[in-house]
């Protein structure tokens, strides 16, 4: 099961009934845009004890097109890395 943006907003509305839905949407969009901006600038984003996002460089390499099997040169690019914090790992593994 995946969680969509609209489902997250519904849950926030339940937790914060005094806030308008449009305000919650704006807050959520600002939150995501700040993460995107930081990653674009190669900065590390840490949500203390929950998760860390950071970028690293994937070097140029030869790869294969899965449809044709033809060798393709993949250029150097930034990729996003994610690391779970201890509290998130503990919450996921609780029964």
Total beta-strand segments: 5
The fraction of residues in strands falls at: 25-35%
User: Would you identify the regions where 5 or more consecutive residues have pLDDT less than 50?
Assistant: none
Distance between the termini: 18 Å
Largest sheet: 3 strands, antiparallel
Secondary-structure element sequence? HHEEEEEH
Secondary-structure class: alpha+beta
Quickly describe the structure.
This protein has 95 residues and is α+β, with helices and mostly antiparallel strands.
Name some characteristics of this structure.
95 residues, alpha+beta, 3-stranded antiparallel beta sheet, two-stranded antiparallel sheet, 3 helices, 41% helix, elongated
Description:
By secondary structure, this protein is of the alpha+beta class. The chain has 3 helices and 5 strands; from the N terminus they run H-H-E-E-E-E-E-H. The strands form 2 sheets. Strands 1-2-5 form a 3-stranded antiparallel beta sheet. A hairpin with a 3-residue loop joins strand 1 and strand 2. Helix 1 (5-15) crosses helix 2 (21-40). The longest helix is centred in the N-terminal third of the chain and has 20 residues, at 21-40.
Describe the secondary structure blueprint for this structure.
Layout: H1 5-15, H2 21-40, E1 45-47, E2 51-58, E3 61-64, E4 71-74, E5 77-84, H3 86-93
Antiparallel strand pairs: 1-2, 2-5, 3-4
Helix pairs in contact: 1-2
